Amino acid sequence: MGMVSKQHPRTPLPSSCCLHLHHIVYLRLVASSHHLARHSVDVTKDDKPLEPPPPAAAETESTQQQEDEDGGLKLDPRRFEEKFAVLNTGVHECRSCGYRYDQAAGDPSYPVLPGIPFAQLPDDWRCPNCGVAQCFFERKSVEIAGFAQNQQFGMGGNSLTSGQKGLLIYGSLLIGFLFFISGYFLQ
Q1: How far apart are CA 186 and CA 100, in angstroms?
Q2: Region annotation Disordered: residue ranges (predicted)?
C-alpha cells in the first residue's frame, strides 16, 4: 500500500501580500541603483564651459551680450586639438560603380599622367566606367591610431596604422616564441 499524497492546488496569495512583495523588490532595485550611482564618475567635466557659474541678474545681461558676440560658450580648447591623424592615400573611389582613381597611376583612358592629384584633374574628366562627374567620387584615407598632435613622438611608432601596429606586435611575439623554441633543437 503506497502512500498517496494529496496535491492541493496552490492557494493564491492575498493581494496585499503581493503588493508588499512588489514594494520590497522595488526598494532593492532602487537601493542597488543608488549604490551604482555612488561609484560612477562624471566624465563630462571637460565639456563644461570654462566660465564660472552665472553671476547676479545685473551682470547676467552683460555676459549674455559677450556670449552673443563671441558666438556661444567657450569650451576647453584641448577638445579641438584632439583629432585623429588622417593620411590621404591619393585614391578616390566612385560611389556609383566603385572605380578607383589612383593618383600614382593616373588614368590611361583619359590622358592623365601619373602623379596628378584628383583636385587638379580637368573639369571635363569623368569616371571611365560609368561617366559620372568628379563630385561623385569620395576620397579614401587612412586613419592613423593616435592624435595628430602626437605624431612626432614615439620613434615613428605613432605614424603607423592600427593594422601595421598589430602586425608589428604579433610578429615580434611570434619571432620571440620561435627564438625560444629553437633552443630545444640545440645540442
Answers
A1: 52
A2: 42-75
